[in-house]
Amino acid sequence: MNPWSQFAPELVTDLYELTMAASYLREGMSAEATFSLFIRKYPPGRSYFVAAGLDHLIDLVTGFRFQEDSLRFLASTGKFSPGFLDCLRELRFTGSIRALPEGRIFFADEPLLEVTAPIIESQVIETLVINVLQLETLIASKAARCVHAARGLDLIDFSLRRTHGVDAGLKAARASYLAGFAGTSNVLAGKIYGIPIFGTMAHSYITSFEREMDAFRAFAKAFPESTVLLIDTYDTLNGARKAVQVAQELAAQGRSLKGVRLDSGDLAALSREVRRILNDAGLDHVRILASGSLDEFKIQELREAGSAIDAFAVGTHMGVSADAPYFDIAYKLVEYGNRPVLKLSSGKRTWVGRKQIFRAYDASGTMSEDWLCLAEEERPGCEGLLEEVVTRGERLRPEETLDIIRTRFEDDLRRLPAECKDLRNPRFHPVRISQRLQDLEEETSLKVKREELR
């Protein structure tokens, strides 16, 4: 059975979202509810996040419908009344969404998104919201660290074969590109998102020929305008010398060798030797691409070791965010029927009410501090980050191009203090809490304790 043929976004939910919704209906609860999506804490060695996935979520939410096939399935479970299923049949998202634009840098406890809608509508989309935004934000945040480590050198997404599913591979390509990668090996992502696609050859291609040189010449014959040779199958330096010979043969045809790829061994030392071999042959224009279990830490080590690498292909470690494969992300009710609400669970308290993030910059344009405030507050001289993107269930603006999002990310990364970008011991950016928000939090907390803990 092909699961994609039965894909139904309305069923991308945990059962308890529907059981709660059924109870809301039975109790006549239909007031507006605001849910806030935020990340509670940083993974080790992290101090910022990169917002991603919003456009995908907007498409899913504004088109949210319970199809008849989905309703028949829910009826077959025997868990829901005909009246509730009729409610789902008519259900549309009619609320609003305020969110951080994709590419914005944000910090722990700051809302990535706030949803305000009648409680059944805002409740049933919870799982969908978390699933979509966590994955793409996770990968964009990891990719951003690789971009910082590369210091201007090109990065290419090679993660598809190891991502957690086909859809995750597409999202990894898009999220890494908006965070500054030059492109991807993922051909389908190139078609869907217009991302530049890159690729060379595998070791199996080399070993399928009797001689390495035969493989090199065959590939150059097939792709004379874009020849990149994998040179480490047998001996890297010997492979480099053969690449020089192929480059000379291409030059005789009026063409040029574009690059060589290293995939194993001491990449720093080998790249320097390969660079010397190429330069001695007058091939200083030929780029050296490196791959093989790379991440931001390895890229930084290679840069510090004086490698001669021109571009990095980053795969598994980025595509699954290997050192931080999930975020402590939560979608919590913060207001119902104009009443601020919170939970008092140890380590899981939430900031009440609808909120806004304000960002302040110093004289040089560098981020100096953020303020978490109530939505109705103003903070002169600061930038408000949360923007309304859905009103009365309708998208407010067309889908943004990835180039616009990339530019936004580049601007935020440039403005992020250097100490916050450190890969191992970053400084945490200050996020202040406004006095009005603190007062409302305390007032609500005292009220809850009086009523629930007496």
CATH fold field value of the largest domain: nicotinate phosphoribosyltransferase
Number of domains: 2
Separate helix tally:
16
Q: Structural class of the helix and strand makeup?
A: alpha/beta
CA-atom Rg in angstroms:
26 Å
Distance between the termini: 55 Å
Helix content: 40-55%
Strand order within the widest sheet? 13-12-1-5-3-17-18
Poorly predicted regions are none
Mean pLDDT: 96
> Under the CATH scheme, which class of the largest domain?
Alpha Beta
Q: Major β-sheet, in short?
A: 7 strands, antiparallel
Tell me the overall shape: elongated
Report the CATH superfamily of the largest domain: nicotinate phosphoribosyltransferase
Explain briefly what this protein structure is.
The protein is α/β, with parallel strands linked by helices.
Protein described:
The chain is α/β, with parallel strands linked by helices and 454 residues long. The chain folds into 2 domains: 7-139 and 325-452, nicotinate phosphoribosyltransferase, CATH 3.20.140; 147-319, TIM Barrel (Alpha-Beta Barrel), CATH 3.20.20. Helix content is 40%, strand content 18%. It is built from 16 helices and 19 strands. The mean pLDDT is 96.
Which descriptors would you attach to this protein?
alpha/beta, about 450 residues, nicotinate phosphoribosyltransferase, TIM Barrel, 6-stranded parallel sheet, 2 domains
